[in-house]
Amino acid sequence: MTARYIPYALPLIGDSEVQAVTDVLRSDWLTTGAKTKQFEADFARFVNAPHAMALNSCTAALHLALLAAGIGPGDEVITTPLTFCATVNTILHVGAKPVLADIDPLTLCLSPASVEAKLTPRTKAIVPVHYAGHPAEMDSFLALARQHGLVLIEDAAHAVGTSYRGRPVGSIGDYTAFSFYATKNLTTAEGGMLTTASAESADRIRVLGLHGISRDAWKRYTAAGTWFYEVQEAGFKYNMTDLAAALGLAQLGRFEDMQDVRRQYAERYNQAFAAEPAIQLPPAADLAAGDVHAWHLYVIRLNPEAVTLDRDSLIEELKAAGVGTSVHFIPITHHPFYQQALGVTPDDTPVSSANYARMLSLPLYPKMTPQDVEEVISRTLAILERHRR
Ligand SMILES: Cc1ncc(COP(=O)(O)O)c(C=O)c1O
After folding, report:
1. Is 118 a residue of the active site?
2. 153-188 pLDDT tens trace
3. Is the CB of residue 58 below 6 angstroms from any atom belonging to ligand 1?
4. Which atom of ligand 1 sits closest to the CA of residue 181?
5. With a 6 A CB cut-off, is 59 part of the ligand 1 pocket?
């Protein structure tokens, strides 16, 4: 008998989400409107940010943050190699040069010391990623930004619900970009949010995110709106729909409950794998008072000296045993495109490369049942036991 397949990720969509989206479908207003504005207001309150702009992806949010920060040709932006390609692509989209520092070997987040080593007179911004939902070392990045006059743009694609020293992510750096992609802790199917404390930047981002046309362009089809508009600059089509926002509002309404389940499951994994020498647990011991890990991902690292199989074989064996996994991420320095475009090699980011070879992400989401979690644990441990040195 083949084991029941446990996918790597599933969204948690219940009656409240179905109802919220259905209400919008019956309301005659499908795209950016009252629901989107409500979602922006509620999300801003949730992360304690003065301004929040709902967009159609985190990629759009990163792109607009860089533009609003005035980053362009001739500028360098330092970021982490252990990230999704969107972090780096958006830097290229604005004509700037992505500079890849390296990660901290414990947290897998961008290392402040490696950022410092990459600073040049052309450096204009730092883009840390709160990897897996673990808070990045924001005090160090804030100090570096202050000292060198740099813009701090946080890639918070994994960090809805993350806090650093008592401050929610979204209220710390100059700009924070969130993702509501289908696998994220809070989903709108596709979607993103950009937060900032700058009213001026928020205004520009709203214009840039909707074709570059004058303020409140989305209102032009309402009774309060007007047909007239002016294009201020060549903007983008990055607005969120009310359908997506309604989904987001429903998810936000039960976010803490969903996070409680994630936390419980992460703790159960930690407890079950603590005595397994082949597994390095995700970091948590370094978390300080006031830090909250959002547990977007549960990333384990294989200790090669304990077993005879490597990471790729473990993934294959888990798949055969009915456990879906993923790898976050193939470092930027390993992709042929960036090797060509940026002249980088895996050896330029040795800590990322070494950890990449050992890492995989196990299923962790509130739609899993406690039984699913136990199945992932027992199937994983059984494979490791079979390959013990
Ligand atoms: C670290 C990181 N940054 C950016 C993104 C892009 O997010 P989106 O798909 O919402 O554009 C992702 C998506 O997975 C991500 O993991």
Report:
1. no
2. 999 999 999 999 999 999 999 999 999 999 999 999
3. yes
4. 10
5. yes
- 168 and 238 inside one domain: yes
* pLDDT number for residue 260: 98
Q: Look at the pTM and tell me if it is higher than 0.85.
A: yes
21 lines ligand 1 (CB under 6 A): no
The token duo for 262 is 């994630």
In the block, residue with structure tokens 């160090």: 140
Element (H, E) at 168: strand 167-168
What's the structural domain count of the chain? Answer: 2
Residue 227 — pLDDT band, cuts 50, 70, 90? confident
Look at residue 129 and give its three-state secondary structure: strand
Q: How far is the CA of 2 from the centre of ligand 1 (A)?
A: 34
Q: Which of 219, 253, 287 is the last residue of a domain?
A: 253
- Count CB neighbours of 43 within 10 A: 24
- The angle subtended at Cα 362 by Cα 339 and Cα 367, nearest 5°, is 125
In this prediction, residue 220 carries a pLDDT of 76
Find the catalytic residue in 35, 97, 124, 184: 184
Q: Domain residues for 70? A: 15-253
Mean pLDDT of the chain: 96
CA of 43 to the centre of ligand 1 (A): 18
Query: What is the CATH classification number for the domain harbouring 332?
Result: 3.90.1150.10
Distance CA 145, CA 143 (A): 5
Q: Is ligand 1 within 6 A of the CB of residue 361?
A: no
CATH code: domain of residue 85: 3.40.640.10
pLDDT digits (tens, 9 = 90+) for 338-355: 999 999 999 999 999 999
